[in-house]
């Protein structure tokens, strides 16, 4: 503690842990959160609401926004330990778990967090390429008609997405990603707004009529009883995991200035980010369901719920692509930094690990190049791109990884760390409430995992590699 204080007192360039001063604010942290939470999955919420209906759809949206807000507040108070304002920093989620709960739970946390982060980056590669394909198809449909055969593969688009990620992955750390997150957040507002606007236009069409219901798809009319059950499980899981950003929340908080206290600023950022997210989720989900009813497509910008105006659909998909390019980096940075920290610790004298070169790039400025960072991050992006190409139905696999990691990362670890940090007495009202929340979310995780496994099994039955979409 004394060592940390000496840095902040005697050198204005450094924080109390000896690192360069953090400069983030509630605005940049909110942008990181919106970037991490609002993905292209926002446009699939109409499908999720269609499976659940008006009543359950609204309840589930509100319920999981509140759960996410609560657990993000708990994590914010655990950033410093043992005291939430003056304690020692925990710069990463895993460092926090290790510091507060110990080594055994730390290893379980590492497995859950990195499996989810890797899965999400692969999913982003696939989803970004789907939006690129959608632009090409949209222009084809506009030119040749909606019944034209506009099939194409998305492998070349995955490669393009991967090239962009290789370039952006050379940004050294999270602290220098603020501009990228702000751009990505603006893009998420853009394509969500386009989806909302197109839905409103469809609802306002003269003579428009669509079937919706309080309980969603009708058994015996739209789906069988078994399909209704699986779809309901998947819809609950989709909405629950759509809010999940706990695996990067600590890294986001570690970008904040130390004054005012980081936990106060992070709570404000979480509140702003989740309010914005819930607002757009509700609009996209509910208006999308009103526009398409029980026949809502999985994603109404890439699944061609709308064909015209084709240029607006193109812009919406372009916004999705730009957003995913940024979101990939937000989720990949913890993986990058973990491997680089491990390498520096194992070989502290190695120039490969530690030496940085200043490379002047015209119109951009100075790029700080490190050979290990350049090599390792490039290899990571190439591997995730190849996996996305090999398993083009990987979104269901990501759904399963999300199901498995949702309970520990979003609920279990935050509640357990809070109970330990705040020294909450066993069997007190707060203690019982936290345990009940954990039990409920465990059930949600199991239900969603079952739905994801069923989706993977269905995909495997019809999987033909390297076929046109």
From TrEMBL:
Topology versus the membrane: Multi-pass membrane protein
Transmembrane segments: 26-48, 54-79, 114-135, 177-201, 271-290, 310-331, 374-391, 397-415, 436-457
Amino acid transporter transmembrane domain boundaries: 22-456
Function summary: Carrier protein involved in proton-driven auxin influx. Mediates the formation of auxin gradient from developing leaves (site of auxin biosynthesis) to tips by contributing to the loading of auxin in vascular tissues and facilitating acropetal (base to tip) auxin transport within inner tissues of the root apex, and basipetal (tip to base) auxin transport within outer tissues of the root apex. May be involved in lateral roots and nodules formation.
UniProt lineage: Eukaryota, Viridiplantae, Streptophyta, Embryophyta, Tracheophyta
Record keywords: Amino-acid transport, Auxin signaling pathway, Cell membrane, Membrane, Symport, Transmembrane, Transmembrane helix, Transport
Pfam families, sorted: Aa_trans (PF01490)
Localization (cell): Cell membrane; Endomembrane system
Major localisation: membrane
InterPro entries: AA_transpt_TM
An example Gene Ontology CC term for this record: endomembrane system
GO molecular function: L-amino acid transmembrane transporter activity; symporter activity
GO biological process, one term: auxin-activated signaling pathway
Name assigned to this protein: Transmembrane amino acid transporter family protein
Similarity-based family: Belongs to the amino acid/polyamine transporter 2 family. Amino acid/auxin permease (AAAP) (TC 2.A.18.1) subfamily.
């Amino acid at each position: 503690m004394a060592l940390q204080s000496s840095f902040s007192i005697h050198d204005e360039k450094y924080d109390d842990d000896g690192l360069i001063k953090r400069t983030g604010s509630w605005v940049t942290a909110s942008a990181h959160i919106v970037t991490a939470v609002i993905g292209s999955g926002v446009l699939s919420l109409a499908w999720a609401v269609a499976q659940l209906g008006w009543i359950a759809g609204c309840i589930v949206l509100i319920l999981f926004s509140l759960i996410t807000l609560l657990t993000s507040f708990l994590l914010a108070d655990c950033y410093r330990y043992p005291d939430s304002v003056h304690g020692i920093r925990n710069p990463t989620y895993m460092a926090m778990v290790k510091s507060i709960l110990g080594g055994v739970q730390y290893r379980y946390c590492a497995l859950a967090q990195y499996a989810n982060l890797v899965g999400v980056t692969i999913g982003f590669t696939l989803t970004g390429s789907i939006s690129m394909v959608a632009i090409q198809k949209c222009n084809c449909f506009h030119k040749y008609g909606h019944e034209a055969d506009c099939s194409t593969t998305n492998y070349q688009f995955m490669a393009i997405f991967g090239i962009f990620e290789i370039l952006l992955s050379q940004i050294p750390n999270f602290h220098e990603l603020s501009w990228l997150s702000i751009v990505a957040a603006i893009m998420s507002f853009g394509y969500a707004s386009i989806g909302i606007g197109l839905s409103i236009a469809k609802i306002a069409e003269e003579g428009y009529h669509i079937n919706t219901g309080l309980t969603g798809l009708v058994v015996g009319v739209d789906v069988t009883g078994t399909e209704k059950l699986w779809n309901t499980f998947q819809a609950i899981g989709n909405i629950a995991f759509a809010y999940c950003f706990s695996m990067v929340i600590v890294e986001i908080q570690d970008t904040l200035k130390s004054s005012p206290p980081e936990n106060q600023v992070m709570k404000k950022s979480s509140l702003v980010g989740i309010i914005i997210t819930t607002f757009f989720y509700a609009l996209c989900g509910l208006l999308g369901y009103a526009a398409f009813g029980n026949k809502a497509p999985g994603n109404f910008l890439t699944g061609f719920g709308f064909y015209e105006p084709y240029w607006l659909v193109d812009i919406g998909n372009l916004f999705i692509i730009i957003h995913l390019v940024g979101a990939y980096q937000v989720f990949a940075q913890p993986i990058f930094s973990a491997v680089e920290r491990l390498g520096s610790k194992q070989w502290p004298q190695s120039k490969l690990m530690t030496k940085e070169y200043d490379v002047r790039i015209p119109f951009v400025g100075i790029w700080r190049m490190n050979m290990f960072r350049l090599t390792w991050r490039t290899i990571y992006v190439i591997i995730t791109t190849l996996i996305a190409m090999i398993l083009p139905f990987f979104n269901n696999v990501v759904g399963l990884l999300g199901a498995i990691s949702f309970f520990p990362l979003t609920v279990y670890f935050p509640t357990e760390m809070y109970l330990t940090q705040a020294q909450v007495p066993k069997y007190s009202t707060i203690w019982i409430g936290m345990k009940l929340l954990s039990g409920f979310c465990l059930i949600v995780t199991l239900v969603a995992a079952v739905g994801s496994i069923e989706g993977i099994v269905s995909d495997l039955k019809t999987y033909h590699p390297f076929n046109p979409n």
